[in-house]
Amino acid sequence: MSIVKHRFSLPQGMIPFLFLCITAGCSKDFFKPYSERIIGRWELYDTNKIGLGSSRIVYSEGSFQFSSDGSFFYTRRSGAQYAGTWRLKKYTVTVTNSEGQQSSEQKHSLLLSATNIEDQQVLAENFDDLNFTGTDRFKAEVSNNFNTVTYKFKRN
After folding, report:
1. Which of 28, 65, 141, 151 has the maximal Cβ count within 10 Å?
2. What is the DSSP letter of 58?
3. Is it the case that residue 122 has pLDDT exceeding 80?
4. Domains of the chain
């Protein structure tokens, strides 16, 4: 009994062509900076608190419209409308373990500040950690010493 080995090779230049064909239908949002990915209309669909004590949940429900000029509009389900500004910052968190080894991680924070158009009520929140979990979803966290509140958004 003999074993026959066949060797298959692609014509020169075929691999880049195949890569292009495979990735052409995929979203390119993954490659965009967070400041571009956040632009558009988003719905806050879930908040979840883990830990002890109480937390003040500033934005509890509604829709957000983020513009590229740093402005945004927030509309509660009740119809109350707010206008304000948003700002994203990238920062590095460095942790040292018990053996003295350090590890660093890049994170993004999101600062929102908005004023009610009718009664001038101000809402402000600084989300410590923002992560896109897909092209149409992101989550943002607010942490204090005792608990963390996670906000989940989906694109409208």
Report:
1. 151
2. S
3. yes
4. 33-155 (2.40.128)
Task: Report the SS3 class of residue 36.
Answer: helix
What is the structure's pLDDT at 4? 61
Strands (E), the chain: 40-51, 62-66, 71-75, 81-96, 102-116, 122-127, 129-134, 137-143, 147-155
Contact, 31 vs 135, CB < 8 A?
A: no
The model's pLDDT over 70-86, given as tens digits with 9 standing for 90+, comes to 999 999 999 999 999 99
- Cα–Cα distances (Å) from 2 to 5, 8, 106, 112, in that order, read 10, 19, 56, 71
| pLDDT score at 30 | 55
Choose between 16 and 79: higher pLDDT.
79
Q: Which amino acid is at 71?
A: S
Phi, then psi, of 31 in degrees rounded to 5: -85, -10
Residue with tokens 């996670």: 150
